[in-house]
Amino acid sequence: MQEFIDFFLNLASQWGYVGIIFLMTLESCFIPFPSEVVMIPAGYLAFKGELNLYLCILCGVLGSIFGALINYYLCFFWGRSVILRFGKYIGINEAKFSKFEEFFEKHGEFSTFICRLLPGIRQYISMPAGLAKMKMFNFILYTGLGSFIWVSILSLLGYFVGQNEELIRLYLKEILIGLVIFAVLASLIYIKVKKPFSKKS
Asked: Is residue 197's pLDDT more than 60?
């Protein structure tokens, strides 16, 4: 992590906020690039007065949305035909895919929001959104909301903890556990609230 942090600190001194947008765009699309090594150093630079914390968060959210849109449109235009063409080899047919699209039509907004909080999943939730052709306004809104929470957490962590890698690891682990618990509880509440309306419809 330290090598990535040093790399970003050097990059930020040259590119500033543009560097945050660029790297978070990479992180949010199909390129596996951890947002921790972007937003935590950005928060630290904000603490030092070299960047503005609020602008760092804004740029992080914008980069996340830009990267998510890349995945969204890749699957929007080409994903369905590719999956239906090759999915038969792994048991995916048009009927199953239609059920998936129906599920995402009903629960896509919640899924998009909650998965943006979970590392390892957050980069890829935009793909099923593109496959299901989720409404663009809703996609950007819920992607932005989820990204705002995640980016803010990382930026504030860098702002208050700085370059103390040991503390970063400790707090980041606790934060991730908390987010997983929140995601599970939120999902249970969502299912309980949604179920009566599903029966009525």
From this structure: no
Residues ≥6 apart with Cβ < 8 Å to 37: 1, 4, 5, 7, 8
Q: Running DSSP on this structure, what letter comes out for residue 126?
A: H
Contacts of 187 by beta carbon, 8 Å cutoff, 6+ apart: 110, 114
Compute the residue count for the chain: 201
- The residue with tokens 């504030």 is 156
Q: What is the pLDDT of residue 14?
A: 73
- Provide the whole-model pTM: 0.81
Position 5 scores a pLDDT of 57
Angle at CA 113, nearest 5°, toward 37 and 53? 40
Contacts of 149 by beta carbon, 8 Å cutoff, 6+ apart: 116, 117
Residue 32 DSSP SS3: coil
> What are 143's two structure tokens?
């992607």
Q: How many CA atoms lie within 13 A of 95 on its CB side?
A: 1
Phi-psi region of 133 (alpha: psi -120 to 50; beta: other; left: phi over 0): left
